[in-house]
Amino acid sequence: MTTLAEAARPLAAADSAFRADVLAGLAAPRRAIPARWFYDRAGSELFEAITALPEYYPTRVETALLRAHCGEVAALAGRGRAVIEFGSGSSAKTPHLLSAIDPAAYVPIDISGDFLRASADALAADFPALPILPVEANFMAPIALPADVARLGKLGFFPGSTIGNMAPAAAVDLLRTMAGTLGEGASLLIGIDRIKSSDVLIPAYDDADGVTARFNLNLLTRINRELDGDIPVDAFRHRAIWNAAAARIEMHLEATRPISFTVDGTRFTMAAGETIHTENSHKYGPHDARLLLRAGGWTPIAEWTDAADNFALILAEARAPATAP
Ligand code: TRP
After folding, report:
1. 84: CA distance to ligand 1 center in Å?
2. DSSP per position, 66-106
3. Is the CB of 191 under 6 A from ligand 1?
4. Predicted confidence band at 322 (pLDDT cuts at 50, 70, 90)?
5. Which atom of ligand 1 is nearest to the CA of 161?
């Protein structure tokens, strides 16, 4: 349902940021659009469908790890904390954690506001006594936590290997920002996907049913709808590529024929085979993952992986930097 207030909403700051990112990204010599713009309502729902795909192992493996080890997490991180989830989406993995650690509050942070509130409402039904304080925000920027959680110990929760969607330098910046948001003495439970055979990786990002393709292509539909575009969506195809040198899966939208289109009055032309780069998913070996955390101001204190070492769940603590030697 659209309320009158929403329909009459003036151009929000988020809309102009979307416009600026798309226009700059389409004009760049190597076209790229930041991945956070995938997540309109349709994109968020398609993403949830991705997490249920047989090819998409990360969600299954991480959920099993959480289910198996949340008691240990509770013992190490302590009960009665505020759980702060970065990029909470549907909060599908959260109940396992919440029932184990018995938190004093839950703060889901997500860029998709209506999705965030729907998920928070669903969770509230299962945890009626738990204060749930949703924050609609881009978690890449420093976030002011609700005043109610100021005096509580903090446990950050960053599942889904979302950290891999940033280039390593940006991932380190984000980890440092999180350490600043959560404060000294905070813990962070983070899921990080491992480097593995491209025979496993590629299908996870290019499934047989084409759900990931629809997710990627939905970005173009969103641009057409929200930014007055006339992009011929059917002239694009989804590509997933393993970039071994950078240890990452790349998602692109590839023009299958020469095309010309406008977005917000600006004309763009693309040759057949040219792509718009829409997502990176960096993968980390065991040492890489721990080094990344340390570089970001977090000291790993425990780690759980599946038998095949496909995915790691790591608990880390924010500590004051050592001064010696
Ligand atoms: N962070 C997860 C990953 O990289 C989930 C994800 C983000 C994703 N964007 C995606 C999965 C696009 C598939 C396609 O795997």
Report:
1. 20
2. HHHHHHHHHHHH-SSPEEEEES-TT-TTHHHHHHHH--SEE
3. no
4. low
5. 1
Average pLDDT over residues 95-117: 90
Q: Is the dihedral of CA 258, 263, 268, 274 positive or negative?
A: negative
> What separation in Å is there between the alpha carbon of 35 and the centre of ligand 1?
9
What's the CA gap between 260 and 28, in Å, rounded?
Answer: 16
For residue 10 the two structure tokens come to: 């003036």
Which DSSP letter does residue 161 get?
A: T
Look at residues 104, 164, 100 and name the one whose alpha carbon lies nearest to residue 130: 104
Measured in whole angstroms, the distance separating CA 77 from the mean position of its chain's CA atoms is: 23
Answer yes or no: is the C-beta of 161 below 6 A from any ligand 1 atom.
yes
Residue 313 above 80 pLDDT? yes
- Between CA 97 and CA 76 the distance in angstroms is 13
What separation in Å is there between the alpha carbon of 241 and the centre of ligand 1?
A: 13
CA distance 130 to 48: 24
Q: Convert the pLDDT of each residue in 197-244 to its tens digit.
A: 999 999 999 999 999 999 999 999 999 999 999 999 999 999 999 999
Any atom of ligand 1 within 6 Å of the Cβ of 89? no
State yes or no: pLDDT of 9 exceeds 60: no
Does ligand 1 lie within 6 Å of residue 159's CB atom? no
CA distance 13 to 136: 13
Q: Return the higher-pLDDT residue of 39 and 168.
A: 168
Q: In the structure encoding, which two tokens stand for residue 155, read together? A: 């446990």
Q: How confident is the model at residue 89 (pLDDT cuts 50, 70, 90)?
A: confident
Q: On the CB side of 155, how many CA atoms lie within 13 Å of its CA? A: 28
Q: What does the mean pLDDT of the chain come to?
A: 93
DSSP track, 241-284 = EEETTTTEEEEEEEESS-EEEEETTEEEEE-TT-EEEEEEEE--
